[in-house]
Amino acid sequence: MTAPVTVSEKDLRTLLGIVQDTRDDFPDSGLPLSLLTELTDQIRCDNLSLMGAEYVVARPAESWMQEVPPLDLPGIDESATEWWNWIEFTSYPSCSGDLRSATKVSDFYSARQWHSTVAYTDAFRHTGIAEHVLQLCLPGQLGPAAWPFCGGAKMLIFRGPGPDFSERDRDLLALLQPHLDQAYIDAERRRCWPPPLTLRQQELMRLIAAGHTNAKIARQLGITEGTVRSHLEDIYARLQVSNRAAAVARAFPAGAPVQ
User: Fold this and answer.
1) Which residue in 154, 163, 192, 201 has a CA-CA distance of 20 to 30 Å to 213?
2) Is residue 238 a contact partner of residue 191, using CB atoms and an 8 Å limit?
3) Cβ neighbours of residue 163 under 8 Å, at least 6 residues apart?
4) Around 204, how many Cα atoms within 13 Å sit in the side-chain half-sphere?
């Protein structure tokens, strides 16, 4: 699982550009589809799936999935793809605690063993895209429980008959994992932001989170303390809170930003 890194500087520049680009196509769950599409351009594959669970207070976690390209495979027994039907592979991150490595099906199964799993015989065999599979975890930070229960995501990259994913492919994903995970966290933070605050109110909230007084905030922003209080009253109403500490917790569910 710890093969020497063989990624070129050109590869790194290209992939880091993918995760650092500003994007506006944020879906209800997961990562921007444009990001995932560009990733498939760099790692040859037939399908990339990102899946996870979305925690909602007082309700069970709701699963979600993104696919690039979208698959329409009528008649496939999707229940056969559940993690327990290829458990050696799918449970490796949670059982080992290794949430950073990129792993391949071939790390755990010979071709004969893979072809005898329920996941392959009852589902993947019929798709023609899953002779080889590459797995990466995005643990995230916003869920109330640790991976794999809530708040995280798992990326599965599928390739049909032919050569397996190379060590270059594995190394690219492993090195990119922290950046993809941060992109996922940023997307979750953007989705979890409470009723929209204005840019000035967001700036004011960052100063409050840093522990500044109204007087210091007024001086730093070039406004009066009365204006700071007015902003706070509006912020409290928007966030449905009654004090500074609650406003910070509501405005920054993933933790206050570092100043």
Assistant:
1) 192
2) no
3) 132
4) 26
**How much is the pTM?**
0.70
Phi-psi region of 98 (alpha: psi -120 to 50; beta: other; left: phi over 0): beta
Position 207 scores a pLDDT of 94
Which tokens belong to 102?
A: 């990129």
Q: Kindly give, in sequence order, each residue whose CB lies less than 8 Å from that of residue 256, ignoring residues fewer than 6 positions away.
A: 206, 209, 210, 248
Count Cα neighbours of 19 within 13 Å in the Cβ-side half-sphere. Answer: 19
* Separation between Cα atoms, residue 139 and residue 57, nearest integer Å: 19
Phi, psi of 135 (to 5 degrees): -120, 140
pLDDT attached to residue 254: 60
Give the CB-side neighbour count of residue 196, counting CA atoms within 13 A. 2
Is residue 105 within 8 Å of 89, Cβ to Cβ? yes
Question: pLDDT per residue over 197-251, tens digit each?
Answer: 888 898 999 999 999 999 999 999 999 999 999 999 999 988 888 999 989 888 8
Residue 53 CB neighbour total at 10 angstroms: 20
Q: Is a pLDDT exceeding 70 seen at residue 53?
A: no
- CB hemisphere CA count around 107 (13 angstroms): 21
**What is 58-94 written as a DSSP string?**
TEEEEEEEEEES----TT--GGGGSGGGGHHHHTHHH
Encode 151-177: b = buried (16+ Cβ within 10 Å), e = exposed. bbbbbbbbbeeeebbebebbbbbbbbb
Dist CA 86 CA 108 (whole Å): 10
Q: Which two tokens stand for residue 64?
A: 């979600």
